[in-house]
Amino acid sequence: MELSIIKIGGNIIDDENKLAAFLDAFAAVPGKKILVHGGGKLATNTAERLGIRQQLVDGRRITDAETLKIVTMVYAGTINKNIVAQLQARRCDAIGLSGADGNAILTHKRTHATTDYGFAGDVDSVNTSLLTSLLLLEKTLVFSPITHDGKGQLLNTNADTIAQELARGLSSTFEISLVYTFEKSGVLLDATDDSSVISRIGPGYYQELKDRKLIFAGMIPKLDNAFAALRSGVGKVIIGRAEELPLLLAGRAGTTIVHE
Asked: Is the full-model pTM beyond 0.90?
């Protein structure tokens, strides 16, 4: 059975018209599918209005206690339920989930040698039996990046990581296409030139690009997750522009991640 797992970036969430167009395309994707989303600028703007300073390290948000409240409200609440409602309007029977729902994604609080990420979660396990059951009932799953540690603590987890972990966990049951979408046409050789798409990238070339400082910040965790998914048995991993979703799934656009 085929399963498409698609992660959308903040540039789509932040734009009402782009989101509507993307959801038209997503609803039309045949077969079983999961949508994973982050929060775009809404969480950051909400925090700033409340005077809560936001900090990112290597593309990852530092989540203090007050920020956790905001991202839970925004990600698992406003954004997630808005997407679910819009998919229902497109006759796509969607269920919105956080990692705490049905114990779907269990995480632990991240520890790091030099950086305190606060209430950020790293994934321990995915409840594949629950998710498989829902998918077999022809439900489309919409995941927010809020997880839990099984002890009552919610945690903020990188949405790219969630997409990768879902793909890895479900890869023994489904033939998976994992698609990371964002505002660019793919991984670019020149960040200022959207036509400089690298059509295929393996781990060796990826390391070279990092060494040459041609890939940095938010693209690093995205590619790290893409390669982790490929190593774990996911059949196809593609990065590209959300507006080109049908072409990405067909392998005719974006950057395809390869073993080498």
From this structure: yes
